[in-house]
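User: what does the whole thing look like in 3D?
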Amino acid sequence: MGRSPCCDKVGLKKGPWTPEEDQKLMAYIEEHGHGSWRSLPTKAGLQRCGKSCRLRWTNYLRPDIKRGKFSLQEEQTIIQLHALLGNRWSAIATHLPKRTDNEIKNYWNTHLKKRLAKMGIDPVTHKPKNEALPSSVDGQYKSAAKLSHMAQWESARLEAEARLVRESKLLRSHSFSQGCSSSASGFSPVSTFMAPGQILGSKISGDNLESPTSILTFSESIPPVMSAANTAENPKKQTIEFVGSSDQQGGGNIIKEEGHYQTIEFVLMQQEAEGLGFTELLLDSSGEQSLSEGGNGGAGDSDNGGENGGRTDHHEDNKNYWNSILNLVNSSPAGSPLF
DNA sequence: AAACTGACCAACCGCTTCCTG
DNA sequence: TCAGGAAGCGGTTGGTCAGTT
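Assistant: Here's the predicted 3D structure for the full assembly of 339 residues, as structure tokens:
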């Protein structure tokens, strides 16, 4: 595209931020908001480029950032979401409140990726490294298909969320107010994972805005992301309803394709029937056994009595893969290296 | 005590996407 | 519809520090 680097101007400082610079930036944003990042440094009296200011603010100075070690649940969430979404750090970060995409990315690269690699799991594909990719094993395909559907769904949903946020900004700026068809339960139509009202890391309070392209309607608010405990202890009725027409992207992937709709509906019905949360559904990719069932999943899981003793086909491998991830995180205190 | 090594993470770079005129 | 600017995003780099030799 040939865009000129924003930090090329002479006199602009690079490198680590000093406490004084931090102070200036925070003071300015607290008073004026960030506004245009490009013009901010001049106004705030900083010898930095706008990009650097934005990064410093979003990754470090923002008051709603949680720093420090990742909890067990956060690790679990990252691994699961990475399996679904790949390196879409910002998308993953939307499900980890108070964590930045940069922090998650760093944590993945320095901790989680290595753990998976040492387990013999390809951190990119989340498959055992020695597993031949083409496989005709029925169960594996089913699992893969299910995951794939969920990934598509999640991907489309994220795009819809982004669009919704943009629309909400637009609506606000035009003082446009319109009745919202979302249920009075306080459900924010944007997320199956986030806390109600929390959109892409920011809060939209009060007004439940409706996406013109797709609406996910849940009978109740969905518990925060990947809260296995929440979903397991408190399985809630979840129904999905797509309303309206699709546009050219995002949610259209789902709404246009009847088959996907039905798949999602089916999966959620199944989930509901089994009392499983999304986490369990994901982890229990074979659909045969819930990982959250206490303690059976240890190293001895593969010789779990009964089925075809000693058989290690792809189906089994696939199932055990997700078991192993959860066992890994569960058996390892957060922050203590396993290997 | 010094040199070396590896882990960690803040910050940068450059590409992509979005927005606006 | 298009071009250019602004912001977002993910990959990568480089500085710092702790542990080891």
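In plain terms: Chain A is about 45% helix and 0% strand. Chain A has a mean pLDDT of 55.
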